[in-house]
Amino acid sequence: MTTTSAKAVDIDNYDLAILAALADDADINSVQLSKIVHLSRTAVARRIASLRERGILSNARYDVAYDKLGFAIRAFVSITAPPDVDSWEFLDKLLAKPEVLEASAVLGEALLVVEIIAVDTAHLHNFLTWVHDIGYSETRVILRKNRSPIDFRTRLKMVDEIRANPDPRLVADS
Q: Which of 48, 76, 97, 140 sees the fewest Cβ atoms within 10 Å?
C-alpha cells in the first residue's frame, strides 16, 4: 500500500522503509538495511539506485564539524541585490566562494539566503564586505544547531493528514 504523500512520486512501503532507515542513519550498511526492510541486498541496492535516478534520494553526506576545524563562525546571510544585478551570475559567484556551504533562493525581501562559515569575525567581515560591493545583506550568526527528534515516517504522516484534512480557511472557493 502506498501512502497519499508517496503517490505523487510513486513509491511503496519498501521504498519508504529504506528512506526511513537512511534518514535515521546514512552510514547503515546493506546487510543491516536488508534486514530492516526484509528484502535481499540486491533488491535494496536496486531500489536505492531507482530512488537516486528519480531524484528522491541524493548521495549521502556527512555533517562536518567545521568548528572543530577552525571555523569559529557559522551564519545565515540574507542577501538582496539591486535590480541591475544579474541574480544568476551573482549566485554563481557566491557558490564559488569557499565560505559558502549552501545557497537558497527564497521568497520575501531577500533574494538569497546562504549558510557560510568563517574562521573569525575578521573573516566574516571580509566576506560581508564582498557581498556589500554587490548588494545588501543581513547576517544571523548561528550559536547552536539542534536536529529535530521527529522521524521521517512522522513527517510523511503529517503530509498525509494535511492533504486529507486541509484547513478550510486556506482552501480556495471553487
A: 140
